[in-house]
Amino acid sequence: SPGLSLYFEDGHDDLDDFGFDEYGSECDGIRITAFLDAGQDNLTPLGRLEKYAFSENVFNRQIVARGLLDVLREFSDNENDFISVMETVARMSEDGEPTVRAELMEQVPNIAMFLHENRPNFPEAFSRYLVPIVVRYLTDPNNQVRKTSQAALLVLLEQGLMSKADMEGKVCPVLLELTEPSSDDDYKIEAVAIMCKLVTMLTKDTVEHLLLLRFCELCSDVRLFQVRKVCAANFGEFCSILGQEATEKLLMPKFFDLCSDSLWGIRKACAECFMVVSNCTSPEVRRTKLSPLFINLISDQSRWVRQAAFQSLGRFISTFANPSITGLNFYLTGPPSHRPEGNSSTQPKEDGTSLGQPKHSAPLSHQQMDDCTVFNSFNFWRSPLPDITQDLQLLQEEERVEVIEKQDETMRDTEAQVKVLSAALKAAQLESQREDADESLSESNDSTVKNLYYCAKIPIFDVFPNSHSLLSQNVIPQQLLDQYLSMTDPARAQTVDTEIAKHCAFSLPGVALTLGRQNWHCLKDTYETLATDVQWKVRRTLAFSIHELAVILGDQLTAADLVPIFNCFLKDLDEVRIGVLKHLYDFLKLLHADKRREYLYQLQEFMVTDNSRNWRFRYELAEQLILIIELYSHNDVYDYLRQIALNLCSDKVSEVRWISYKLVVEILQKLYACEAHDLGLNFINELIMRFCHCSKWVGRQAFAFICQAIVEEDCMPMDQFAQHLLPSLLSLSSDPVPNVRVLVAKALRQSVLEKRSAYSDELEEALSELRMDKDRDVQFFSTLDPNRNVMDTSALI
Asked: Which H or E element spans position 61?
């Protein structure tokens, strides 16, 4: 109310004192540092700060804590005042009210950033005043205060504001103390969680010397399953930081124990981080120890563990990738991990109840192998591939090393794009030389080698109807591949995950790259099975990745096995077709010219959609056509793409028209670049008739934009532009619609005027009229400096 003083003292003895208790939450709209203003108490600003920071009224103390950043801004110029404020902050941190302590801790990251940017002695002040508060609050009896301090600590580390000395000397000792066996359970669980989050922000030396042994102890905590679960969920982070040696010597035994834990949630967490752990081990450990361990998880008695294991299977397989076998080298810098969404089942709430040990299943027999592809998830999952020499250490026999090195030379680039028969025979030869292969496989391989003469004359799949069992591979353990191929089994959808086929499709590019194109025969049937899956989401996943798989397989296998699937996707639902369309250029450029030309007749089909309101589909088509132009001759562009472009220019949605105008410009540039002047002139005349003489103002406006783009992109010689297009453009300078004149003025002043033209007199005359136009926007663009950056006028189209 007007009669009420803005500030109200908590003692209630002087209405002119400066308190806030009459305002409650409404005080949020008041300047927080108003209590520093001069009043009738004759106190200095620092005195008033002291007064309200330790007021008996809790709300006053909360307001001071919330306004500490603004207070520091007020006093940061004077060193003595700054020290006084920081000492006040340190004393306030001992406030007995939890809400005050929590409010203060929320401001610490902001205060630290301010000090970092404005105080030359930031490290000293931060370490002396703020770090002790953060560390002390990690053991605060109030849960909210502890949670706030944990969040603040993470922010400080993410921003790089905390020094290594403070981390090692102040933070880590507290975490180690809280994770002692005798520590309180709640504190211990929280400390383990914060320790696991911090590990990714610490150096390897710090983790190895201070946290590693304690982490190993916590992994074996028999009393608190919550501690083991946190350790299992963050196991991969520790492995990534510590590297191969520490992982194999110290962490591996703990990982084995966690993978066989009595609680299904812990085993599930292990399955989810399996790929990261695998990346931190040698090829031999990966093959001989981790693979059997993963097979146990994938056959676990808990459905949730099996589900997580199958979702991680493709990523785990990708860690076996070896450039000497794939024939391809990838340098990956993308995001670390990505997994498909959509787990259709609801996971039950986990408690401490034991669900028994995971059961072990016998190896699956060799069954027909099928597989399919989505976007190249390998690029997201796989950390930089190990050196070839390191991977070759996996091969225990010198004989096998020589074979793979020879194969490496013959499988690269064009020579690597071999026929399925050649790949099958090479795989069989490799298998015949494996001394550790089981007896049945060895006999099969020997039989295959003996019949090489007949295989050379008769297709291998005619000789051996079940030849997939004979054409096994040695890139990954066969059991892993068998399990991966079984993901298309309808029974898996009932017993594991209703979307297991989608996960299989999602991870297929990584699996295909790992196996190499010479082992594509192992995945071909599975790919075809997924491509005809009844779930459109599975087919959509494949459609989005088919261009990546084409890169892996090469042009011959692509033409033989992927093109038929690609053609089916073109006739599928829009949800599937969009996957093909988004990467149409990427796929077509991998085909031979003759095969590529066949798709010219099908591009028109993309104009027809299941839902006419799906304008983004047509927008994507225009974007792809801009790229596709370079793949075809100027005659094909004129005969097939020109009409599609003109139809898109008449779309009902402005965004589609906008991108289509750029497509028209690219087509014209292609024609003139190929010296097809007659076709170019025909196209220009068509543009004039369709747009410049259009009865609708949007068409005439589009013509102005197209003309400007033609000049800016140097699509044609300027004398040709002046002769064939400029007169029509100048005629629009007197158009009755202001929006048309705006773009005409913009095109003439910013683009055409900068080029020498035979129509310079007419151009100046048109600009003079536009400068005197009654519309202010027209005047603005007709007088604007061409080099000045102004708003985009595309919104007017």
From this structure: helix 58-66
DSSP 740: H
Instruction: Enter the pTM of the model.
Output: 0.70
Q: What confidence score (pLDDT) does residue 324 get? A: 60
Q: For position 750, what pLDDT does the model report?
A: 83
Query: How is 201-242 classified by DSSP, letter by letter?
Result: GS-HHHIIIIIHHHHHHHHT-SS-HHHHHHHHHTHHHHHHHH
Instruction: Note whether 204 and 240 are within 8 A (CB).
Output: no
Consecutive H or E run containing 618: helix 615-628
Q: CA-CA distance, 628 to 597, in Å (whole number)?
A: 11
Residue of 115, 116, 197, 188 lying closest to 151 (CA atoms): 197
Alpha-carbon span 618 to 654, nearest angstrom: 11
103: which 2 tokens?
A: 């409010």
Residue with tokens 């079984």: 486
The total of other beta-carbon atoms located within 10 Å of residue 327's CB is 22
Measured CA to CA, the distance from residue 634 to residue 630 in angstroms comes to 9
The torsion angles phi and psi of 370, rounded to 5 degrees, stand at -130, 155
Beta-carbon contacts of residue 597 (< 8 Å; ≥ 6 apart): 632, 636
Q: And the tokens for 33? A: 């540092």
Q: Is the dihedral of CA 376, 382, 388, 393 positive or negative?
A: negative
Element (H, E) at 63: helix 58-66
- Residues 370, 529 contacting (CB under 8 angstroms): yes
Taken in order 604, 606, 610, 611, the sign of the CA dihedral is: negative
- Cα distance between residue 563 and residue 543, in whole Å: 12
Query: Distance (Å, rounded) from C-alpha 560 to C-alpha 415?
Result: 16
Give the model confidence (pLDDT) of 308-359 as tens digits.
999 999 999 999 987 565 544 444 333 333 334 444 444 444 443 434 444 4
DSSP secondary structure code for residue 694 in this structure: -
Would you say the C-alpha torsion 494, 497, 501, 507 has a positive or negative sign? negative
In the chain, the domains with their CATH numbers are 1-162 (1.25.10), 367-591 (no CATH), 606-675 (no CATH), 691-797 (1.25.10.10)
Closest listed residue to residue 564, CA positions, set 536, 537, 542, 586: 542
What is the predicted pLDDT for the residue at 475? Answer: 86
Rounded distance, CA 611 to CA 257, Å? 54
DSSP label at 595? H
Contacts of 420 (CB under 8 A, 6+ apart): 460, 520, 521, 524, 557, 560
Which letter, b or e, does each residue of 30-55 get, where b requires 16 or more Cβ atoms within 10 Å of its Cβ? Answer: eebbebbeebeeebebbebbbbbbeb
Q: Give the HSE-up count for residue 240: Cα atoms under 13 Å, Cβ half-sphere.
A: 17
User: Do the Cβ atoms of 283 and 394 come closer than 8 Å?
Assistant: yes
For residue 73, give the nearest of 31, 40, 39 by alpha carbon. 31
Report which of 400, 633, 602, 426 is spatially closest to residue 515, judged by C-alpha positions. 426
Residue that the structure tokens 């096994």 belong to: 472
* pLDDT score of 63: 84
User: What is the CA angle 620-621-622, rounded to 5?
Assistant: 90
Residue 272 tokens read as 């989810």
Where the chain has pLDDT below 50, the residues are 1-32, 35, 40, 327-471, 790-791, 794-795, 797
- Which residues are CB-neighbours of 550 under 8 A, at least 6 positions away? 558, 562, 587, 590
Residue 467 contacts residue 460 (beta carbons within 8 Å): yes
pLDDT of the residue at 233: 92
Q: Which residues are bridge partners to 8 per DSSP?
A: 20
